[in-house]
Design brief:
single chain; 212 residues; mainly beta; Jelly Rolls; five-stranded antiparallel β-sheet; 1 helix; 2% helix; 38% strand
Length: 212
Amino acid sequence: IGLINDDGDVTDTIPKVHRKSKTLGAKPPEGAVVLFDGSAESVKNFERGEAVLGKLLRHDCESKQKFGDHKLHLEFRTPYMPFARGQGRGNSGMYIQGRYEVQVLDSFGLDGKNNECGGIYSISEPKVNMCLPPLSWQTYDYDFTAAKYDADGKKVKNARVTIKHNGVVIHDDLELPNHTPGKHPEADSPGLLYLQGHGNPVVYRNVWVVEK
C-alpha cells in the first residue's frame, strides 16, 4: 500500500502483513491417532472420505474411530466466495464427538457471533474473531472432556472444552450444556469427528487426535 501526497508522489509504503496460525503444521506427538495426513490410506479412516486437490480431505465425512476425552488438531481452508453472504460463504463445521459443532465459515472481518467461525451454535461466541482471510490455512486445536453419566444413565456433569483458533484461545474451559441439533444427541459413549458438508468447497488436512 502506498501513501500519495497532493502532488501524486508516493511518500511512504505500508507492507502487507500475512498472518499465520501459531500451530500451523503441528506434528502429531508419539501415540497420537493420525486421522488424515494426506495419504490415500488415511482417507480410509473416514466414512465418505475423499481426497481432493491432491492430498486434501473433502468436507462431509466422519471418522470411523470414536473418542471419549481427547485433544485434537486439524487444519482447514475456506474458499473465496466474494458474491456469497452469511452462512453461504465457506460453510462447514467441526462436530466434536459428532455432537457439538464448532462453526467453520469465512468470517474474516465480521463480529464473531456464535454462528460464525469459532462459534458454538446457541452456546457461545468466540472470545475473539481469529478468522483469517479465505484461502488461508487455519487451525483448530481443542482439549475436550466428555459429559459424565451415573449408573442409571443420567447426565451428572456437562462436557467441557478449551479451543484455540489459529493458536489463540477462543473458548476457555467452556461448559457445553447440550448438543448441537442436526447430528448426534449426547450419550454415555464415545463419539466420532464429523466434518460437516454444506455444499461449499471447504477442505481439511493434518488431522490427528491424542486420547486422554
